[in-house]
From TrEMBL:
Source domain of life: Bacteria
InterPro entries: ImuA, P-loop_NTPase
Record field: compositional bias (Basic and acidic residues): 234-245
Annotated region described as Disordered, given as residue ranges: 234-272
Protein's name according to its UniProt entry: Protein ImuA
Length: 272
């Protein structure tokens, strides 16, 4: 318990240091992803200063984590990005994979990782983090049922995000949706990627389904292709136009999104 208290106190001190130079935030601003269809359906993009849930089955952990990190990176821009996990999550999912993070366009110098002893401590730290307007975005990783993340807990997170303007992404690995105050709820899976010239591995690809939206239609789905060089999502149409109607150039589309986790597993485990 004493170690948990020390860790949370250290995180609060770090956040307080960031808070001395708060970044300006705009009310009801939107985060454009670059994917025309997705942004149009969301009236310009994801609302900033809100909580967004991303669900991924246990076998889709790499895709869900990758997309959550990309969205958090886009929301953070040049400001710090805080990723909160429990020590159990870190053991189960492994440590961040450096080359994978680089391919997602993440600057390691802007990524802060907080390891909490348990989910109760993690949720307390998440509220504290969201109260710091100097943060660019917050990624909260929870696994399984996460019984402490009830409607009341999600409302605390939503209120803190609205007050500071910091956008939060709830990464739910192997969990099932329950009532929450999140602005949007998504299901994430890996999608086939189109090979690049020379049949090289293609960009990371994601299958994204909108399960719930507080204001607007849901039940929509998209295929997102992440272009790290452009720093935006597309749908692969440009690549299919260049390489043929079916998007192939000498082979079938490659399966799976780039996996940023973990560094301490075998290559076979990472590809699974």
């Amino acid at each position: 318990m004493s170690e948990s208290i020390k860790s949370l106190a250290a995180l609060k001190r770090h956040i307080a240091a960031l808070d001395r130079t708060p970044a300006p935030t705009a009310g009801c601003a939107r985060l454009a992803t670059g994917h025309a269809g997705l942004d149009a359906a969301l009236d310009g993009g994801l609302l900033r200063g809100r909580v967004h849930e991303l669900f991924g089955a246990a076998e889709e952990e790499g895709a869900a984590a990758g997309l959550a990190l990309i969205l958090a990176r886009l929301a953070a821009d040049d400001a710090p990005l805080l990723w909160l996990r429990t020590t159990a999550s870190a053991r189960a999912g492994g440590s961040p994979y450096g080359p994978g993070l680089a391919a997602l366009g993440l600057n390691p110098a802007r990524l802060l990782i907080g390891l909490m002893a348990d989910e109760a401590m993690l949720l307390r730290a998440a509220v504290e983090g969201l109260r710091c307007p100097a943060l660019g975005a917050l990624l909260i990783e929870l696994r399984g049922r996460a019984p402490l993340l009830d409607l009341t807990a999600s409302r605390r997170l939503a209120l803190a995000a609205e007050q500071s303007g910091v956008t939060a992404f709830l990464l739910r690995v192997g969990g099932n949706p329950v009532p929450s105050a999140a602005e949007t709820r998504w299901q994430v899976a890996a999608a086939p990627s189109d090979p690049l010239p020379g049949n090289a591995p293609g960009h990371s690809a994601f299958a994204l389904s909108l399960l719930r939206r507080r204001a607007g239609p849901d039940g929509l789905a998209w295929r997102l292709i992440w272009d790290g060089e452009k720093g935006a999502f597309g749908d692969g149409r440009h690549e299919r136009h260049e390489h043929g109607q079916d998007g192939q150039q000498g082979g079938a589309p490659l399966s799976g999104a780039l996996v940023p986790l973990p560094a301490d597993r075998s290559a076979a485990d990472r590809a699974a």
